[in-house]
Structures are given as structure tokens and as C-alpha cells.
Amino acid sequence: MKIHLPDKVIHIIQILQNAGHEAYAVGGCVRDSILGRIPDDWDITTSARPAEVKALFGRTIDTGIQHGTVTVMLGKEGFEVTTYRIDGIYEDGRHPREVTFTGELREDLRRRDFTVNAMAYNETDGLVDAFDGLGDLKRKTIRCVGDARERFAEDALRMMRAVRFSAQLGFSIEEDTQAAIRQMASNLCQVSAERIQTELMKLVTSPHPEYLRLAWENGITAQILPEFDRAMEMPQNHPHHVYSVGEHTLHGMMAVAPEKSLRLAMLFHDLGKPLCHSVDETGLDHFYGHGELSGEIAETVLSRLKFDNATKEQVTKLVLYHDYPMGETYKSVRRAASRIGPELFPLLFSIKEADLAAQSNYMREEKRRSLEQAKALYADIVNQQQCLTLKDLAVGGRDLIAAGMQPGKAMGETLDRLLELVLENPECNTKEYLLTQI
């Protein structure tokens, strides 16, 4: 098998080989190359000890030298070069207490998580595949190297990585590996919120966000996102819906672009429904006020998982307003855009389209036409540069002061009233007219 290695990777490998050491590209870069994907980065494994690697290259960084990793800098690019190693006991569920360097490539590959990530390659020896990773790629299977329970005991996050890789690649998870996940999912409580966030985002923005169902089936979401488990257990007996709340959520995520805020908003947009469920006299389910509750859940979970404030604010607002009526008139669309904000308002169309795609066929065409009408009106509003916010008003605080008004609460209330006037009648947004209305 021939894999095209970047020139700089070949250069590093050849320098190590010329000095009498073994060296290979290893891990995800080999997997992705075989699959025809472009690797995000290139890692190199070698029999050379860290000090020997540092001596061979002019510029290196000790990124993880205690575990054998040195970053070799070639220009502005960095390449991690790691000595073959055998890991000791994992005391913190993430890092081995100590590592032992070894001269055997197979021993280094044995410690890796999944067979598809345990292949090495160089142009001299070709593909080194000690654990049938190539076979698992052909079978489209994620399988642990060796005993799955040992791999997950070493690092519990590997359970989430199994689901994430399956979602990114469209693979299934081998049954013994799944059985180990079901048995050991509670160990995820040992993993930091930041690491869980990273894996969750890779899953949510993958080509198959619906594989979150696999995380639910194997007990992972019960540990990291119990709010989703409640949604999976909540039916929706209503003409507008055909799925449970959880399945509707998964289908909504599939229907929206793989952008961080959009996928997260679809994940959270209905998670408040189990908390406000009611049944009317005809037996139909209702979820009054679920938008507000879902927004609260989004804010709570995103804070729990240590998301940045900008993401929390954007996602929470999209969730809060995902069901907000836009109407089919210029006036109603202007008011909706003003309330939600012109920065987020265009994203709300994507949320509503995905929400609609995950519903039943009941009144689908009517809903779609209404949404398309609102989109067309908003495009016209933007094209005409109509006023939507206070900063778009033809007058501001300085104008009111110049007209004799004192700064304070009354000034803010006056500007709000003028904005209301302009949202009703955009042609009134002139300085001359607005000053007559003070």
C-alpha cells in the first residue's frame, strides 16, 4: 500500500533513519490517508529517545517530553515526534503514572486506543498493521486494541472517542467494545468538562450527529448529558410531530449545517419539553413554555461543560427564540428581527427550517411557505437598510441632549419609543421627523 507523505514528514523520517533509528508516520494521519481524507496533522513515532530527537533537529519544543514527545519545528509547522513507549498504570484515568521507552514498534502500537489508529507507515517498510486496523477500515468498524476494558480503564474519554469516530467516519462500533462502554460509562465522571466538551463538539458537528443516539444507547449521555436521556423517553402525541422529543432532536441536528452554534441550538432547542409536558382532554401532548425552559437548560449545560461565553450567549438565545413567530408582514418581521437581533436573526431561519424538517407532514407546506415569505421579507428589509435597532435610528442620545433633554432613564425610554415608531413606519426614520416626536 502506498501512502503519500508530505515532504516535511518524509524529511523528518529520513533524518531519523539516517541516524540509525526507526521512524514512521502513525495514528490518525495514516488512517485518514488510507480513507482518502486529508489529515489534520501528522504524528511520527520513533525508536529514538527524546534527547536523540532533539540533537538531530535545529528547533524543537518539549511539548510532552516526560511521555516521550518532542515537537519538531520545520518553518512554522510543528510535527510531534514520540518515542516508542509502554505505558505504566493510569492513576488519573488519563495519563500513565510513568512510561517505559521501548525499541519495539509493536509494543508502542499496542497501547493505542483503536485498531484503525494503531497503524504506522514509512516509505521503506510500507504499512505496519499489527492489529488488523486495515481490516477494520474495510469492515467500517471501530474496535479497541486488545481488551476494551483495559483501554477504557486507562482513559475513560476513549468511550466518547469511539462514538465520535463512528460518527465522523460512518462506522459501527464492534460489539465487545460497545459492551465495555455500557459496563464502564460511569467512569466518565473522572473526565474533565473541557475534554468532554471537545469530544461532544466533534460528534455534534460530524457528518452523523444522529450517532448521539449510540451514546445514549450505551449509557454515555446518562453521564454527560442526562437532559438528553429525558428527551429520548418523552413521546410527542400531536399532529405536528412523528418522533419522540429526542428523535426529533436528532433529526433536527441532521437537517442543519454542521456549524457549532446551529448544531448546539438544535441539540438543546426542545430539551425543556419533558419539564413542561401536559396532556389535554383529547389526549394530545402539549409543551407550553418549552422554549424558555430549553434556553435555561442550554445555559446550564453549556456552563457545566465550560463553553465560552460567546457560544453560550448565542446558542441560548437561538434556543429561546426557536419557536418565536415571525409572521408574514414587513412589520412583524421587523419586530422579530429587532427583538432577536440582526446578528442572530438570519441563523434563526436555519433553525426553523431544521425544526420543520424533523416534524410530521401535517401542515408542512403551509409552514414552509410562511417561513419562505418571512425570509423574503427580511431580505427586502436588509436590502432597503430599514431600521431594526437603536443604533440604526436617525437620532441618538446626543441629538436628544442637543434638543434639551437631560441624560437618564427618560432619554432611554424616549429612544425606545422612537424605535417602536420606526419599526411600525420605517419611512419615519429621519432626524427631522423624530425630533418632532420627542
What does this protein structure show overall?
By secondary structure, this protein is of the alpha+beta class. The chain has helices at 7-18, 28-34, 50-56, 105-110, 133-139, 148-154, 157-169, 175-184, 193-204, 212-217, 221-224, 226-232, 245-254, 260-268, 290-304, 309-320, 330-340, 345-357, 364-383, 397-402, 409-424, 431-436; strands at 23-26, 43-46, 60-64, 69-74, 77-83, 85-87, 99-101, 119-122, 126-129, 141-142, 172-173, 278-279, 285-286. The strands form four sheets. A seven-stranded mixed beta sheet has the order 3-4-5-2-1-8-9. The model has no long low-confidence stretch (mean pLDDT 95).
Task: Describe this structure in a few short sentences.
This protein has 438 residues and is α+β, with helices and mostly antiparallel strands.
Short key terms for the protein model shown above:
438 residues, alpha+beta, two-stranded antiparallel sheet
